[in-house]
């Protein structure tokens, strides 16, 4: 079957269960879990973005500003990008906007002029505090009635998943 051929209703028997997983029992619990993780992350970020945009802020700004605020002193722009998991040019664009708004300062590295150290300004700390207050209220509503042991178990599970992903998952040699 080439890419230009239209499928007919009878082709399902040659697709599902052979080429693709069967429709019955789809998705498996494991696939359903990974789909739910991705969807929850996307929807949570979209909700945060929606609420922050009402104040002229954004989730990406909060992420960058939090990474800078909680990073050790003299953390470079490259280290911030790695910490967040984004490419340098993407971070540069965000930092340009944050700097133009007076929320972040780039300071020269006295030992290596190619590097810049990131620091929030007073206005940056105030904006970040506002963003964290908004997201904290949303988080409280999200986790309402979830027992602390459930939160700890979920955190442990997701931490394991993140460690494995960041460790560099590979396909087995026989695949």
What fold name goes in the CATH topology slot of the domain at 27-142? Arc Repressor Mutant, subunit A
Radius of gyration: 22 Å
Strand order of the largest sheet: 1-2
Could you state the oligomeric state of the chains shown?
single chain
Q: Could you tell me the number of beta strands?
A: 2
- Percent helix, as a range, is 55-70%
- Ranges where pLDDT stays below 50 over 5 or more residues in a row are none
Largest sheet: 2 strands, antiparallel
CATH level 4 superfamily of the domain at 27-142: Winged helix-like DNA-binding domain superfamily/Winged helix DNA-binding domain
**Integer average pLDDT:** 90
Q: Can you tell me the CATH class of the domain at 27-142?
A: Mainly Alpha
Helix-strand pattern: HHHHHEEHH
**CATH architecture group name of the domain at 27-142:** Orthogonal Bundle
Shape: extended
Structural class: mainly alpha
Percent of residues in β-strands? 5-15%
How many alpha or pi helices? 7
Report how far apart the termini are. Answer: 24 Å
């Amino acid at each position: 079957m080439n890419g230009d051929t239209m499928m007919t209703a009878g082709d399902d028997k040659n697709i599902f269960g052979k080429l693709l997983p069967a429709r019955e029992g789809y998705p498996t619990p494991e696939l359903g879990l990974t789909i739910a993780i991705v969807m929850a992350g996307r929807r949570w970020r979209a909700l945060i973005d929606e609420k922050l945009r009402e104040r002229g802020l954004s989730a990406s700004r909060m992420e960058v500003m939090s990474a800078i605020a909680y990073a050790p002193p003299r953390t470079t722009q490259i280290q911030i990008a790695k910490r967040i998991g984004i490419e340098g040019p993407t971070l540069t664009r965000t930092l340009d906007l944050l700097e133009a708004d007076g929320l972040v300062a780039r300071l020269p590295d006295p030992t290596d002029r190619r590097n810049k150290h990131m620091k929030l300004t007073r206005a940056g700390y105030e904006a970040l505090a506002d963003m964290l207050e908004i997201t904290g209220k949303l988080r409280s509503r999200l986790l309402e009635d979830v027992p602390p042991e459930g939160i700890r178990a979920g955190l442990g599970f997701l931490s394991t998943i993140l460690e494995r992903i960041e460790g560099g998952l590979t396909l087995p040699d026989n695949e």
